[in-house]
Design a protein that fits this description.
The complex is a heterodimer. By secondary structure, chain A is an alpha+beta fold. In chain A, about 35% of the residues lie in helices and about 30% in strands. In chain A, the strands form two sheets. In chain A, strands 1-2-7-3-4-5-6 form a seven-stranded antiparallel sheet, with helices on both faces. Chain A is globular. The radius of gyration of chain B is 34 Å and the shape is globular.
Chain lengths: ~350, ~675
């Protein structure tokens, strides 16, 4: 994301002008915007015009609208952010108070005004605009009959494809059904990888599985690539890292983060840091349950007593639509920081 | 006259089943060809060769004035004559039925049938028309003046049923019941004739359709009372499902492979072949394991990766053997097998260091023992394997047995239900036959029978022969948890699927209707294989392969449950369970994500709410809404799974009400389902 302009007064009101460049930026914006903020962006509006003869035609007109945000919808998979709100700047085509849904577009600048900019939001803009360390990692977790292909960015894990192939178990006397099923399964994963993983952007492709599935799959993939003369896969052979996980479900990625090989390569991603933090929390909870707490009531009490050493807060809390709730959490964060 | 056309514009032979109902009779089948042709209709029923793609002769006759000759070809008949004749006869029929009773009616029909002129197609149609008009069909209608109620199977159906009985297979249950044509085929002129009223007709037809559905149009040989059959044949049919578990490389596959060989299940030549091939790839000692490990990968790596099923019988029992993998990564497969088991053999490695690595630290001996206990296995035989490597040392044996007895009783096993046997899977000592003093003197010196000190102790097979047979819930609603499914198998056809699994409760027989949950698809059981033997019925506890027709393979997955349509199982994402927490690396908190294991299914799930912890023995609540559950505690929690799971309450079904929670390759907790929240 690029920060084009920032203007925030002493009263903490102000605006920023940003251009989203990557799907991940949509995620940042999603966390930034709140109800009753004002958003100005270029958008398309279907305008009904009535000609002299009485026939009504709708034209799609591109215009700049400023809306007061009321509702947000974020589609993670598609990377689409839709913001609904009322128009607050009088416009040739759109009257004051009329509703409009903005579809935020990539590489199109927009301006966001807030009545009060808090620490969290400003920090988020900083993070989003930080061009260093955009570790793009792809991961495929698999087990017999199930595979999940995900893309890990710094802040998100997006599931690109979930593959489920029924593989008949080996039966006494005949293993051909089983072998065929396995081949079919590998074929689908291979195709999925080719389709969803962009090797020019991705630095590491993690193959995680229990048992021997990953080794077998890797062999299969390389054999297929050689046979089909698939240059891209062959060239990027070095990017594949085989890791042991306990299952093929998406949750197994958590273990991947802990694997020393991967840790080294992803050391500075936020995800890796988060995993470390959560781990230490759980350790504490296990060993010294009197020193670890979760839940707002308990944490608030601890903060009041100045007893917080480390505070972990989830994104979801800040996205609370209710301004009061959000203020509560921000207050908590600011208090503990002091 | 109304012409029936389907959406593609083709004339429908919809009249066939109605029309023929009155004309066809078993006896007619013996009549010469000509007579049949004269009636114009039977050929359609009895020999499909005369069927052709156009509308039935009768239909076309009625609708467009064409007749058919003896070869079933359509022949033109003067329309005028036909219409005139029709009218004449309709009037005749009406008069005959104006309260004159059955006899007159019958005679009219008989008259018509006995006429031999080929052109007299009309004759047959009298009864057909009378049918249409609603005055009952010929010989079938016993009630004078009442419309044919369609409540008896039509001769059409009778013939088809007879055919299918002869063939021995159940024809598709989709034989059309006589609901079809209803008032439509009435020619316009005929419809105007109000005889008995149209409403009666509709009613009769629809009720007929319903009743035809309830008693399936094609019934199998007879509805077997499986419960009664089972109680009669119980002794012969009882099988015990035996699972073999233990730490990796304890020697499970080798042990059972050798047992099967010793019991004569594997022939000499096959065994020699295995030995040769195993030597070739340098895995000579794995020769016996190859009896059970059949895939190339398992053989080349020397590990069992998935459950291998086999069957064998001992003197008093029949067994279905499930060889489980011991490797950590394959515990989900082992759970799938153990959930089908009634009894178990726990194999431990007695070699120096072998037992320790399995038992202490992260070994599977403990985990497996706990898991099978949680899955309801109460009876256990511990096979202390590889004792030949330590010279059959009694001290080693006792050391292992003592440690295990402590551990197992701590797990919840009753001491009497746990037996021990010293064996060597590789050498084949003490497997199917008792040891002799000459064969293995070291073992014979201290391994004595409980009762007589001079006799050597019981061998492994003898011990498993004494397992008590558990009660089988044969009369409960039928449930089969699908562990595997595929196309193919015996009697397979286009839309049939074979499913394997163990019947958790209830019974099933060929021809029975079943429903698949989730999905709600219905099918008919066409074939049943119990332990590789074809049977007509199967009961709870049997490991079966069912061939079901009518199911789409795309909609089945591991974890689906085949049920009886009257009481299908519930499918939900949210439920409440009572968990016993073992030793999680991190304490269980609200929102704790893990993997839910139910029989063969594993799905990601979250412990969304911890309701309360309580004391296992007394049942009193220790803490309401605790922050976390610590190791060893028992708690009631709410679990939300990612995808719907088929479950029963534990009190209704012991097998389908057990769940397991795992995370990162470790079993965190095991429990039972106490409440199911809809959806």
């Amino acid at each position: 994301m690029k920060l084009l302009k920032q203007f925030i007064e002493k009263s903490r009101a102000g605006y920023v002008r940003l251009i989203p460049e990557q799907p991940e930026d949509m995620w940042h914006i999603y966390n930034l915007i709140q109800k009753e903020d004002q958003l100005e962006a270029s958008t398309v509006r279907g305008v009904k015009s009535e000609t002299s003869t009485g026939s009504v035609s709708t034209d799609r007109v591109r215009l700049k609208l400023t809306i007061s945000i009321e509702d947000v919808f974020f589609d993670v998979q598609a990377g689409a952010l839709r913001i609904n709100g009322r128009n607050i700047v009088e416009n040739k085509f759109v009257g004051f108070g009329q509703y409009h849904t903005l579809d935020l577009e990539m590489n199109q600048p927009f301006t966001l005004s807030k009545p009060e900019w808090d620490l969290i939001s400003l920090q988020r803009i900083k993070d989003a605009c930080d061009i260093t360390r955009q570790a793009d990692v792809a991961a495929v977790t698999m087990q017999e009959g199930l595979a999940v292909i995900c893309l890990l960015t710094q802040f998100m894990t997006v599931v690109r494809q979930k593959i489920e192939v029924p593989i008949p178990r080996k039966r006494r006397g005949s293993t051909t059904n089983y072998e065929k099923g396995v081949q079919r399964f590998y074929e689908q994963i291979y195709r999925g990888i080719k389709q969803h993983i962009d090797f020019s952007v991705v630095k590491v492709v993690i193959l995680g599985s229990p048992g021997f599935v990953r080794d077998q799959f890797f062999e299969y993939m390389m054999a297929q690539a050689t046979k089909a003369e698939d240059k891209t896969t062959l060239e990027n052979k070095a990017k594949f890292v085989l890791v042991h996980t306990s299952s093929g479900h998406k949750g197994a990625l958590e273990e991947v983060m802990r694997d020393p090989q991967i840790k080294a390569r992803l050391a500075d991603t936020k995800a890796a840091q988060e995993v470390k933090a959560i781990d230490s929390f759980y350790q504490m909870l296990n060993n010294n349950p009197d020193r670890a707490f979760y839940g707002f009531a308990d944490v608030r009490k601890a903060a009041d007593n100045g007893a917080i050493g480390t505070l972990l807060v989830t994104d979801e809390l800040f996205r609370a639509a209710d301004i009061q709730t959000r203020k509560k959490y921000i207050q908590l964060v600011e208090d503990s920081q002091a | 006259m109304p012409v029936l056309k389907n959406f593609a514009g083709r004339q429908l032979p919809a009249l066939k089943s109605v029309a023929l109902g009155s004309c066809v009779d078993r006896t007619e089948a013996k009549q010469p060809e000509r007579r049949r042709a004269a009636l114009g209709a039977e050929s359609l029923v009895l020999s499909s060769t005369t069927l052709y793609a156009g509308p039935s002769p009768l239909a076309s006759f009625i609708l467009s004035g064409l007749g058919s000759d003896s070869k079933g070809h359509v022949r033109e008949v003067s329309r005028g004559t036909v219409v005139a004749a029709l009218e004449r006869d309709i009037r005749g029929v009406l008069e005959a039925n104006k309260g004159e009773g059955d006899a007159k009616m019958k005679s009219t029909v008989l008259l018509a049938k006995n006429s031999s002129k080929p052109t007299n197609c009309i004759a047959g149609d009298v009864s057909f028309l009378s049918l249409l008009v609603g005055k009952g069909g010929g010989k079938e209608s016993k009630k004078a003046g009442k419309p044919f109620a369609f409540d008896t199977p039509s001769p059409d159906d009778k013939v088809l049923a007879a055919q299918s009985r002869a063939v021995g297979s159940v024809a598709a249950a989709a034989v059309p019941s006589p609901k079809p044509s209803k008032p439509k085929p009435k020619a316009k002129g005929v419809a105007r004739l109000k005889v008995g009223g149209d409403d009666n007709d509709d009613q009769a037809v629809s009720s007929g359709a319903e009743s035809a559905e309830i008693t399936p149009a094609v019934t199998p040989k007879r509805r077997i009372d499986v419960v009664a059959e089972y109680s009669v044949h119980q002794k012969n049919r009882e099988t015990l499902n035996l699972v073999v578990v233990g730490h990796v490389d304890a020697g499970k596959s080798t042990l059972m492979g050798h047992v099967l060989y010793a019991l004569g299940q594997v022939n000499e030549r096959t065994m020699k072949k295995f030995e040769r091939d195993a030597e070739k790839i340098g895995k000579g000692s794995f020769a016996f394991a190859w009896v059970l490990d059949e895939t190339d990968e398992e053989r080349s790596r020397g590990v069992t990766m998935d459950i291998a099923t086999s069957a064998f019988s001992t003197q008093h029992r029949k067994f279905t053997l499930l060889d489980a993998p011991g490797h950590r990564d394959f515990v989900p497969n082992m759970i799938s097998g153990a959930s089908r088991a009634d009894v178990a053999i726990l194999v431990v490695d007695a070699s120096t260091g072998g037992f320790e690595s399995g038992f202490d630290g992260n070994g599977q001996t403990r985990e497996h023992a706990i898991l099978i206990r949680s899955l309801g296995v109460r009876q256990l035989v511990v096979a202390v394997n590889k004792l030949d490597v330590v010279e059959w040392s009694e001290t080693r044996y006792l050391e292992i047995t003592n440690r295990l007895v402590d551990f197992l009783t701590g797990c919840g096993y009753v001491k009497e239900d746990v037996r021990f046997a010293p064996v060597s899977g590789l050498k084949g000592v003490n497997l199917a036959h008792r040891i002799t003093a000459d064969g293995t003197p070291e073992l014979a010196s201290w391994y004595h029978d409980k009762d007589s000190a001079s006799e050597p102790g019981p061998c492994l097979v003898e011990l498993i022969d004494t397992f008590a047979m558990p009660e089988r819930p044969v009369s409960k609603p039928f449930r089969l948890a699908v562990t595997d499914f595929f196309k193919g198998g015996t009697f397979s056809s286009a839309n049939s699927v074979s499913v394997t699994g163990r019947i958790s409760q209830g019974n099933v027989q060929i021809g029975e209707h079943v429903v698949m949950v989730p999905g709600g698809e219905r099918g008919v059981v066409k074939a049943i294989d119990v332990d590789f033997v074809t049977e007509e019925w199967a009961v709870a506890g049997d490991s079966v392969v069912l061939m079901i027709q009518g199911l789409d393979i795309q909609h089945i997955s591991v974890g689906s449950v085949v049920c009886t349509p009257e009481r299908p199982i519930q499918c939900t994402t949210r439920f409440e369970a009572q968990l016993v927490v073992f030793d999680p690396p991190v304490p269980i908190t609200n929102g704790f994500p893990g993997l839910l294991h139910m029989q063969s299914l594993n799905v990601p799930a979250v412990v969304s709410r911890i309701i309360e912890t309580f004391d296992q023995r007394s049942g009193e609540v220790l803490k309401r809404r605790p922050r976390h559950i610590r190791k060893g505690a028992t708690a009631r929690v709410e679990i939300v799974a990612e995808t719907p799971v088929c479950l029963e309450l534990f009190k209704d079904s012991k097998e389908l009400g057990r769940i397991m929670l795992r995370k990162n390759g470790e079993t965190i907790a095991a429990g039972i389902v106490t409440a199911i929240y809809g959806g």
